[in-house]
């Protein structure tokens, strides 16, 4: 289970604390009123998904003893009108969030079958599964 504590700072900056004394700063770009001192929330969301895909593929290839050398994941996120969503299985009013991704694996000695399998595995990382499942956000009970 992951636990983080986010504390507001000057303007739109936040300090995110996690693990054992680790932290980083989040912020919004100057163009929308922040100071640009750190990644914005949607960038962090994409970074979490991309990192999870890369780690999952690396661990899978390591377990299979495949010659994977590098994984590069490119992601973008945007909102689209639900009426324009060809992939949506249910009708919803308003907007849906669309994440587009490209997963590139490198390894001079990887076979075509291994490349194909790694592309399949990329859809199975834990963050991907989280983002595509029902999510419940509940209030923590304070001690």
- CATH 2nd-level architecture of the largest domain: 2-Layer Sandwich
Coarse shape = globular
Mean pLDDT across the residues is 90
CATH first level of the largest domain: Alpha Beta
User: How many domains make up the 3D coordinates?
Assistant: 2
What do we call the CATH homologous superfamily of the largest domain? K homology (KH) domain
In helices, the fraction of residues equals: 25-40%
- Rg on CA atoms, Å: 18 Å
- Largest sheet properties: 3 strands, antiparallel
Would you identify the regions where 5 or more consecutive residues have pLDDT less than 50?
none
| String of helices and strands | EEEHEEHH
Structural class: alpha+beta
Extended strand count: 5
CATH topology of the largest domain: GMP Synthetase, Chain A, domain 3
Termini separation: 19 Å
| Order of the strands making up the biggest sheet | 1-2-3
Describe this structure in words.
This protein is an alpha+beta fold. 29% of the residues lie in helices and 27% in strands. The chain has three helices and five strands. Strands 1-2-3 form a three-stranded antiparallel β-sheet, with no helix packed on it. It has a two-stranded antiparallel sheet with strand order 4-5. The longest helix is centred in the middle third of the chain and has 24 residues. The radius of gyration is 18 Å and the shape is globular. The two termini are 19 Å apart.
Write the SSE topology.
Elements: E1 4-8, E2 14-18, E3 22-26, H1 41-64, E4 70-81, E5 95-106, H2 112-122, H3 126-131
Antiparallel strand pairs: 1-2, 2-3, 4-5
